Amino acid sequence: MSHSTTDATTASTATAPSPTDVARADSFRRRVAGCCLVLAPVAFSAAELLAPEAGNDAASVYAGWAGHRAPGLVAAFVGLAATILFLPGFFGLLGPVVGRGRRVGHIAMGTLLYGLVMAHAALTGVNLVFYAATSPSVDRASALRVMDSLMTDAGAAAPLLLGHYVFTLGVLLVGVAVVRSGQFSRWAGWTVVAAVVSDVVVGFLPVDGVVGDLVSGALLVAGFATLGVQLMGRRPAVGDRLAQ
Q: What pTM value is reported for the model?
């Protein structure tokens, strides 16, 4: 009995990772998450600018996509890349957010997951349908019926539309969590908040939508790029290890 206990203890000790291995793995994860957080808003803003201009009805959406099919296709895949990059970036950023920002950070992560999946990943599929429907080989009347169904069917459109607003709320809460936690530069958190607020405010002003995308996109890139760089160079604190 004593021999088997000793052997089990020895085997457990032999397979346990050393503090150096744990530190290296943590450093690698932080660098990857930080890099994703720098690149994701760039891809997100590029997709917003490349996407075809369209209204709220099938005819205007068809016209927008028919005239800009190639940029629309690029925008769809660049937007999907932003979704893929945002996921590890947000997880890495919100991991060290403890204390006063912890609860807000948890809510933010939940809203971001829904928003990224429904408003961005799923929306890529819709955009690919628009791309295919506006092909010269597809009958325009048939394409309009498909596009109108996608846009007006509550079962298909409502979850995607809700995802857009939920994602916006999630980004706002990320900025608030960063500011409240004090783990990163507060001004970077306020910059993320300003990106969301400017996007909403400009939407009510009589200005070109591209102006709003440029302003909010620049603020989003500045805020998240700063947080990503800080995350890559951050040393985990005792509270971070306990939180893990």
A: 0.80
